[in-house]
């Protein structure tokens, strides 16, 4: 990696960041409400500033610009993927008609599930990379495939009303009411205990988080091999996600080209992983088993520049297209 992060810093930082995230989520239970535009904006600015401060602290602790650069590139990648995740959350909230008052609690559960799943995938990914460097080829190919599906989704990906197989299975074998009872999972109808639609919402959110964890972890390992930085970027990406949901809820439909920007980032990281694998692995069919020296190594700062540029171009293009006469209606980008 070219730098070393002290163990004491890793333990302290992850403990503090996890505590902040938990405290943020507990605020929902204490005071469930719909955040105002001012409140949501304030929290997002706070979390973005916190991420930038963390990058500076990481630079000071390690004395390495690569460490800070890898964190920033990883954080921006995870944050862009989290925004993409919000598209799906919006569809799920609409599909299940979740009362707006309780959407924060649904997001809280979704974030907790995402944190647990990503933590498991990070540990698994780090172990695979440590013992099987050829896994970079698989990660790279998977990201390029994911990028293609992101840019050119199929009919099933575009259908907002499509339920997962798990949800359809539960509807067949579990008694579920047609109406919510606050945020409760179970309620009583005419003396009979039944599940509320909230159960289906939580399961759908969990399934979505699983899919996004599978996509995002290979992407972040394409930027850094430090499990600590990978986990830190994921925590920062999840921080403020619920506030971002309410801030961008009405604007997501206007970001019609955002999925192209995300697809480009995934494809770029996939190619970067493949090139890195050529350096890491000896290929038996080349000079009797040698590393490929001609394959270029893409630096952290180049990666950071590509990520920022891709998201900026996609956002600006979306804003310009939305302002054109006759383009008031959204052109579906597959979300």
**Strand order in the largest sheet:** 1-2
In the predicted model, the low-confidence regions spanning at least 5 consecutive residues are 328-335
| Beta-strand percent range | under 5%
**What about the largest sheet?**
2 strands, antiparallel
So how many helices? 12
Q: How many domains would you count in the coordinates?
A: 1
Broad shape: globular
Helix fraction bin: 55-70%
What structural category do the secondary elements indicate?
A: mainly alpha
Q: What is the arithmetic mean of pLDDT?
A: 77
Q: Helix and strand string, N-terminal first?
A: HHHHHHHEEHHHHH
Would you count the extended β strands for me?
Answer: 2
Q: Report Rg.
A: 21 Å
What is the CA–CA distance across the termini? Answer: 36 Å
Task: Give a written overview of the molecule.
With 335 residues, the chain is mostly helical. Helix content is 69%, strand content 2%. The protein has twelve helices and two strands; from the N terminus they run αααααααββααααα. The protein has a two-stranded antiparallel ribbon. Helix 2 (37-62) packs across helix 10, helix 3 packs across helix 11 and helix 5 (135-151) runs antiparallel to helix 11. The longest helix is centred in the first third of the chain and has 31 residues, at 65-95. Mean pLDDT is 77; it is low at 328-335.
Please give a handful of descriptors for the protein shown.
single chain, 335 residues, mainly alpha, two-stranded antiparallel sheet, 12 helices, disordered C terminus
